[in-house]
Amino acid sequence: MADLSTSFMGIPLRNPLVIASSSLTKSLAGVRSCAAAGAGAIVLKSLFEEQIAAETSALNQYADDYPGHGEAYDYIQGYGMELGPKDYLALLSAAKEAVDVPIFASLNCISTERWADYACQLENSGADAIELNIGLMPTLAEQEGPTIVDQHLRILHEVKTRVKIPIAIKVGPYFTSFANFADRLTRDRAEAPAYSVGWFGKNKEIGKTTWHGADGLVLFNRFYKFDIDVDKLELVPGNPFSTRQEIHYGLRWLSLLAGKVPCDLAGSTGIHNGRDAIKTILAGAKVAQVCSTLYLNGVEQIGAMLEEMQGWMAEHNYTKLRDFRGLLSQARSENPSDYERLQYIKLLIRGG
To answer: Any idea what DSSP says for residue 113?
Structure first.
């Protein structure tokens, strides 16, 4: 039988299927269910900054962001009622005791004030690793691209200097030069670049700061989608689940970055069955995060995906994941241009 064992950020996993942060993993019962179904690792539902603010009675500062929109403000208040930081730490500790698969904590913040302190608490509560789910949405015209990139880098730096466990960053694809951004997130540097003084405020000793890159990149974050109800004339939630068609953008960047950035890669979004997971590994990922397919098909889908992966490996005479990991990455291709503009040209020619 094919061996599906792997590792991510140095952590041994029995297989590459990682349950993504979601409501599936917000309770001990959910964690146990995913582990029993065969998950290789589990990312707990994210601890949101709004929850932290609610528990520290600081939530009122967000009211100004929602003038005249009481429902949105009530929604944010609800975060604190669902699972506060103390409950989250208790869940993390209990999950570590209850299952024998790695448990990753997840932080989702929008400011730089609270990341490091709560990362330390997550480490002390037993997290095997932390996923920083950075969901910054630059909607203001005065927010320039380099400022958004620097904010990601500052968040990473603040957390990496406070904890010893591995740190993965889950980001969206909307950056001007994603390859450059990924390189800056993952490289170790003896000194921070001179142009990055803004990362650390008034720190005059910036040039002497050691930079440690992320241990893992998760590609990509799937941002909240909204729709418009034309009858009620109001905003409504969009489809919360991914489709298999959404896998393609992640595959492109996994294949372009594999072997070029000094960290492990994880695929996320659009991975619905075993063949999708195989595609992700062929592109160069160590693991594949799954979520929507479990909502649509139940946690039993984990076992079905693992069985499909083993069947494919047997059919192609592969015994271990490393036998084909990154096989179709650009770094291992004899025709690297196929991963760039040439694909677009070929598509146009065929269409003609």
So the answer is: S
Cα(17)–Cα(286) distance, integer angstroms: 10
What pLDDT digit, counting tens, does each position of 197-242 carry? 333 333 334 444 566 799 999 999 887 778 898 999 998 888 888 8
Q: What is the DSSP letter of 102?
A: -
Domain-located, residue 51: no
pLDDT at 63 over 90: no
- Long-range contacts of 109-117, Cβ-Cβ distance < 8 Å, separation of 24 or more: 109/48, 109/49, 109/52, 109/134, 109/155, 110/49, 110/135, 110/136, 111/49, 112/151, 112/154, 112/155, 112/158, 114/49, 114/52, 115/155, 115/158, 115/159, 116/158, 116/159, 116/161, 116/162, 116/163, 117/162
CATH number at residue 11: 3.20.20.70
In a domain, 67, yes or no: no
- Which amino acid makes up residue 70? G
Any domain includes 210: yes
Q: Are 278 and 309 in contact (CB under 8 A)?
A: yes
Task: Find the mean pLDDT for residues 291-296.
Answer: 96
Q: pTM of the entire structure? A: 0.84
Residue recorded with tokens 């503009």: 341
- Residue 210 has φ and ψ, to the nearest 5°, of -80, 135
Q: Is residue 203 domain-resident?
A: yes
3-state secondary structure of 334: coil
What pLDDT digit, counting tens, does each position of 171-186 carry?
988 888 999 999 999 9
b or e along 47-71 (b: 16 or more beta carbons within 10 Å of the residue's beta carbon)?
A: bbbbbbbbbeeebeebeeeeeeeee
Residue 262 vs residue 341, higher pLDDT: 262
128-172, pLDDT tens digit by residue?
999 999 877 677 787 788 888 888 898 898 899 899 999 999 998
- Identify whether the C-beta of residue 159 lies closer than 8 Å to the C-beta of residue 132: yes
**How far apart are alpha carbons 151 and 130 in whole angstroms?**
18
Residue 273 structural domain? 6-45+83-351
Q: What domain count does the chain have?
A: 1
- Residue 321 neighbours by CB under 8 Å, 6+ apart: 3, 4, 5, 6, 16, 281
